[in-house]
Amino acid sequence: MAATNEASPKKAPAFYKSEDEVRALLTNDAFKKFCKKKCGECGAPAFKKFAKVSPLVVRAQVGSFWCASCGRLLCDAHRNQHTCEKEDAERARKRNQNVAQVRESLRREAAAKEAADAEAAAAKRAADDKKAAIFHMWKDRRKHAAGVSTTIANMVQRWAVQAPSGRAQDELLELYTSCNRINLRLWNEVSQPTLPGAVDDEAYDRLVANYDRARDLTGLVIVVDGQPLDTHLPWRPRPPPPDDAAAAGDGGP
Ligand SMILES: [Zn+2]
Ligand SMILES: [Zn+2]
């Protein structure tokens, strides 16, 4: 056995599975043989230093030259620095476990990110839809206001043209000019809104005031589908019930 080890020091070392197996090498009979044993790592004679020591003393130091994990006998240089299958396997196991854990946590992170992205996209879509709905609602409202202003501007123009010349006609022409300007303004707000979330209330209120004045001057009222034109904007709160003056206006043409 000694010969084979010397011929190829790197040949598979002997493994001693238990401390008892090692102790069995340390009997008086076997001790000389033990002292010639090679290091399980480098193959060099490992125990020359014990040749002159009592086996009893060496038996007390088993841990200093034997690796309980893999079972190798080892020289001083390699006791704590050898190719230990058990420790390597343990390290590999931990490494694999770590890799698996890292993979798993990456997978979870990716899944969580995907879910969060989908949620954010859905929220954005909902917000966009809501924004679009609000935009269209106000566009419809601006169209409604502009439609009323066209009806009023056209009728006030007719009243002005048909009125007998005099101060009343002059004022009706002025009212028409104002109504016409407001009408253009309100239609511009439909096609190119400067107030995308509103109706130009100030312009609309001036329009209604013009119409009220024109009614006062002519004693006429605009009728749409058999009903007096309703200048109230439906999304605004209703004003208090009309007074007598409004009722009197109904006696129109
Ligand atoms: Zn060694
Ligand atoms: Zn070992």
What is the string of helix and strand elements?
Answer: HHHHHHHEEH
Total domains: 2
What percentage of amino acids are in beta strands? under 5%
Ligand catalogue: zinc ion
Classify the oligomer.
Answer: single chain
Percent helix range: 55-70%
Strand order of the largest sheet: 1-2
Mean pLDDT score? 90
Q: Major beta sheet, specifics? A: 2 strands, antiparallel
Instruction: Calculate Rg over CA atoms.
Output: 52 Å
List the helices and strands and how they pair.
Layout: H1 2-7, H2 19-24, H3 31-35, H4 55-59, H5 85-162, H6 167-191, H7 201-218, E1 223-224, E2 227-228, H8 244-249
Helix pairs in contact: 5-6, 5-7, 6-7
Bound molecules: zinc ion (2 copies).
Briefly say what this structure is.
The chain has 253 residues and is an all-alpha fold.
Top keywords for this entry?
binds zinc ion, 8 helices, two-stranded antiparallel ribbon, mainly alpha, single chain, 59% helix, 253 residues, 2 strands, 2 domains, rod-shaped, disordered N terminus
